[in-house]
Amino acid sequence: MRGTQIASPLRRGWLRLLDGERPWGSLVVQPDRFGVTRYRLVVFPPGISEPERRRVRLARGWPMWGALVWLVCEVFLTQVTGPWTALAVSTSILVAIGVITTSIAGTPRTLVKCLSVAVSPTYRNPDAEATREKLAGLALTLIDADERLERGQISATDHELTWWHVYDEIGSSRAA
Length: 176
Fold this sequence. Notes:
Helix content is 69%, strand content 12%. By secondary structure, the protein is mainly alpha-helical. The chain has a three-stranded antiparallel sheet, with helices on one face. Helix 2 packs antiparallel against helix 4 and helix 3 (62-80) runs antiparallel to helix 4. The radius of gyration is 20 Å and the shape is globular. It has two domains: 21-44 and 112-176, no CATH class; 48-109.
């Protein structure tokens, strides 16, 4: 009984990490040096299944968690083998898991759309400010659709239509 109580929160935490906060992607607002703020909206292709979304998130996060795997391998292998052998094996493992995760993620990984902008308070750039406003509007549209779906005010189909609209809008922004 106790083992299932422990496994359940761990499983939920692991799935939460893989699923992310939103099914459609993510919004990151990151303060940077010199007062610059970076905005990034990532939108997965609508209609993506939960397992596909998890594989895409895993592949997109590979540089971060792959570096951690490389570091752990390096630390343990250096104690077992020489430093050059440890470096070669750790790097081979890093490259192999990168290739495996990106191939497992498949085509949906290539269909993810991103809209990014960096805005500086000291340097006025009308194009960057317009992109930030567009990004904020699209993110609010998606977050609002999520909240309305949770409250039962819209159907899952309407939610996905909103998702499609934003996904297409990001595509037109990129082309412009």
